[in-house]
Amino acid sequence: MARETNLVKCIGKESFEKLRDMKVLLVGAGGIGCELLKDLILLEIGEIHIVDLDTIDLSNLNRQFLFRKRDIKQPKSNTAMKAVQRFSNSKLVSYQNNIMDTEKFPLSWFDQFSIIYNALDNLAARRYVNKMCQFTNKPLIESGTSGFDGYIQPIFPSVTECFDCTTKETPTTFPVCTIRSTPSQPIHCVVWAKNFLFGQLFAESSEETVNDQDLGTDDKEEIARIKEETNELHALQQLVKSGDETKITDILKKLFVDDINKLLKIENLWKTRVKPTPLGALLPSDNIPTDLAQVWTLQENVDKFIEVTKTLMLRLRQEPFIEFDKDDDDTLLFVACAANIRSYIFHIAPKSVFDIKQMAGNIIPAIATTNAIIAGLSSLVSLRVLNLLSNVSNNPLEIPMAFTARASNITTNRYLSNPTLAPKNPHCSVSSNIQRAVLKIPKAIVEHMSLYDLNQKIISKYEFTGEYSVLDTNTNSLLYDFDFDDLECRKLSRFNFRTGTFLLYKDEEMEDGAQLRQSIEFYLEFVPENSGEDLQLPNLPRDTYTYHSPYENAEDEQTAVDADQDRTEDHIQAIETLIVDDEPAEDERNNLKRHLSNSIPSPPTKTPKLNASQSDEDDLILLD
Amino acid sequence: MINTSFDSNQGGLSCIRTSVKDQGPRALVQVMADQINGGLDDRYDRQLMIWGHSGQDLLSQSHVCVVDDNQTLLMRECVKSLALMGIHEITVVFGSSNGSDFVNKSNSDILGFDALESMNPDVTFHIWNENAVPIDSQHKLWNSFSIVICLCTAGPLLQRVMKLSAVPLIMASTNDNLGFVRLIGSEPHCVIDSHGHFTFDLRLNRMWPELAEYHESFDVKNMSQEEVSSLPYSVLLYNVGKSLKSKNIPINRKSVRAEFIELHDSILSGPLTNDLNFVEAERSSFLLYDQSGPFPHNLTNILNSFHAEPNSTINRWVYQFVRCIRIFYDLRGDLPVSAFIPDMESSTKLFNAQKAVYQRKAAKDKSEIMRILAKENYSLIPEPLIDKMLENLKHLDAIKMGSLSSATRTISEKPKFNKLLSLQNDRHDTTFVSPAMASILGAMVSQECVKLLTHQYVPVENTLLYDGDSNETSTFIL
Ligand SMILES: [Zn+2]
């Protein structure tokens, strides 16, 4: 039977015609994305746009069925499109870009789609697409998997829970002091070896200074030591660059004897901790280990460390710098041996290279079946979201989400749990008490209009009365509030504004029960000179809401939480384990860089106090 | 490579490999060896984290047969997942009743056979028309399969499958937005590792002499702060338990906590949360409560599930092993001790000393288990598997498989299931299935297939019904 006939029988002629006329966006062409692309093509959807920045890796091939070994290193989006094109009645458009690229994908671009499917592997992009859907009022089907666990969540902007209505676990980061001075788990040593040591020795050199607030310690002596150590590593980098193999023993001695002895001198650290044991005298031997699944002895780790450091030093003659890549064996072995030697020193269990590869690559388990189930669920529920099924209710609050149950539980009588969608969270900073609009800025005005001028126009037009704040939500930097007006006199041209910048205007009355104006988030869009000199502010219906301090009303919140409990118990847990960055290796490195870096471009930021109702741990992390 | 033959039995016979099914256990032995020699296997990296090299090796030795009347999307979805996960050999048998006497190898389908064939070079494909396979259900071809997946809902092919008695069978079908998966087998299925929540038992309330002696060797009350900080938490727990007993205070969460604070504050300053070994000790205070009790439920379940020795090799080994554990338990009044103890915040020297105490006892218990196994004539179980099961006593289990005779039974309390069965009968030739349903059901079938093949994780017991309108699933024994 032809695909079309089958489909018409399943959903009816009218719905089928609607699908044929529809344009949809698929964000991600990985595990879920390949499956979804197939499912959407089999639904005969008129036009499908596919966005993915990634390229194909060998470890994708156990589930991303559109890719073959010959496709490795090719872009996922385009390869996926080519793989299905000849079977497709849908028009296909692919982009090898980051979905957060505002030049490529301005807000207006999102507006062309009837629905957006998220098949992403990281938190930042998920939150971004969620926000764009709130802006454009487009339904979103959010999804994710990890091993046998998976979930889908349809999101109707301003009606049902959005991605940010529940707090999400962020990728684990460790305080600098744990990594640098007092590791207690294997992962601490791996992070030290990969993000700190390898980064300093072989990666692209960057001027990194340590920001005191991120250290996680107040101990003056310890902080001084951490800073000193960073500077010393720059000296080591020169040694590595020199290519002089005889210096490798110096490197070993510096890292695993001298540095440890210096730490031992900080007595406060060792009052309640077991003291590390500096590396003793070891003579290099010729028994270099090869079995990557075996845990190596200290001697074997040292031998391999020497060998692989030689290799990397040789490579530095050809390559200007080397980035850590779990699939680059030299970099992996260096990190594994360094981490293990450090583990021995701090009396932590050493690990096999195989294990360290997973830890350093932050690999999340993934199989074909869960991805196929989740993609199937996503495409199936989207028919209801698009109001194309006639035999069931398509009311948003009656549509189910889905979580796959843990495969280990013999007592559970459920393979899937299927709570219906919840209304949006009234305290959510993304979906509640906020209005959104595009603010068109003629290029002609940026040279003479100051932030002060802009603020005045906005507060009078939108009737902000009391204290208010202005935040650039792309960078989470505060531009203005009642005791920070340093930037107000700057001309708009001196900010880093561009099309795609978000400006959030927010009432800052903090008294419980106060009537506040809804916040407004503007999406800036720069328009050409000839479009006039005037700044046109869009008309918005201005609503108010009653401010509830989470601190004063803790009881209310508790009741709300209780009422929600039976519905969400499973899912909070599920979501926390699921919304993980698939390959947070990059993110984690960036996080650490953020921790260690001061050099953020203009506009200068200060540490803003976050409004309590908006306090959101993720934002705190991003703030400098 | 695809191996197609439409008309000759010769082709059929050439693909018969004797005792493929029996390679499973041998694979398991090999695996454990592989684990030691293994390198980095990138293609399966992400799934090795789920079932390990031992699971993957069983898959790479398996031969799965998928039977379907038509070359449906559901069948293609199943084959796709199985191929991606690295099943060694896949045989597809399709019916001839609908005149489709050829393999649809045209390039018209995303999941066409040419695509399925190229998905994973590790997989060998055979595609048969039903006319080309032996009629006799007892033929050794059928017995060479590790599992048969049957997606037919009627017709002669189904009748033939229904006569297969020895091979585990997965039946599945979908119609409208309903679908079911059913696991059928001639005997229960044993799980080597359910991957349940990890727990351990340090035997702090049921010590053997050496463990008691070790714990008694610390005079905690007269130690320096530094010495106390380096103690493994089990020593702290033991002292708290002992002190409560001497005061005749019943051991419960509250009394243990109070006693901990007292012990802590008598030696160390600052809050208890500053001392990691105390924090760990408090978190593990459940280890002091009485844990000895009847023989564990999961092991009893395995023994009660079988009326006779299981036929399938892995099931038989699990059953024999658990029988010996029962004999050990009857002799010693307790289970064998695990060599594995959790990491503890303590000095390396003390931790290693304590680990050695457990390891000595575990080795002794294991040698007694080996003795019992030998005495019972159960000497074929590979030692790596014995070690794995000894570490894993809490995560062994058995599930009931459905029987062939109940395969088409309706049940009054499951109206949706009955509806699905009646849809199947009415529309046998014109099934319409949304692609999404095929994707979901196909993946569920493959997932259950992999759980059965690896003997890891807990398969559906034994019928699963899925309703695509509500996303509701229900599981029931049929
Ligand atoms: Zn929200």
UniProtKB/TrEMBL annotation, chain A:
Statement: the UniProt record of this protein carries the keyword Zinc: yes
Keyword Magnesium attached: no
Gene3D superfamilies linked to this entry: Ubiquitin activating enzymes (Uba3). Chain: B, domain 2, Ubiquitin-activating enzyme E1, inactive adenylation domain, subdomain 1, Ubiquitin-like 2 activating enzyme e1b. Chain: B, domain 3
Pathway listed: Protein modification; protein sumoylation
Region (Disordered): 581-624
Keywords tagged on the record: ATP-binding, Metal-binding, Nucleotide-binding, Ubl conjugation pathway, Zinc
One Gene Ontology cellular component annotation held by this UniProt entry: SUMO activating enzyme complex
Biased composition (Acidic residues): 615-624
GO biological process terms held by the UniProt record: protein sumoylation
An MF annotation (GO) of this entry: ATP binding
Binding site for Zn(2+): C162, C165, C428
Pfam family of the protein (one): ThiF
Subunit structure: Heterodimer.
UniProt similarity note: Belongs to the ubiquitin-activating E1 family.
PANTHER family: SUMO-ACTIVATING ENZYME SUBUNIT 2 (PTHR10953:SF5), UBIQUITIN-ACTIVATING ENZYME E1 (PTHR10953)
Protein name as annotated: Ubiquitin-activating enzyme E1-like
Annotated source species: Kluyveromyces lactis (strain ATCC 8585 / CBS 2359 / DSM 70799 / NBRC 1267 / NRRL Y-1140 / WM37)
From TrEMBL, chain B:
Superkingdom to which the source organism belongs: Eukaryota
Any single biological process term in GO: protein neddylation
Keywords: Ubl conjugation pathway
This protein's GO CC annotations: cytoplasm
Pathway named in the protein's UniProt entry: Protein modification; protein neddylation
Single GO MF descriptor: NEDD8 activating enzyme activity
Ranges that cross the membrane: none
Cited function: Regulatory subunit of the dimeric UBA3-ULA1 E1 enzyme.
Family statement drawn from the similarity comment of this UniProt entry: Belongs to the ubiquitin-activating E1 family. ULA1 subfamily.
Listed name of the protein: NEDD8-activating enzyme E1 regulatory subunit
Organismal lineage: Eukaryota, Fungi, Dikarya, Ascomycota, Saccharomycotina
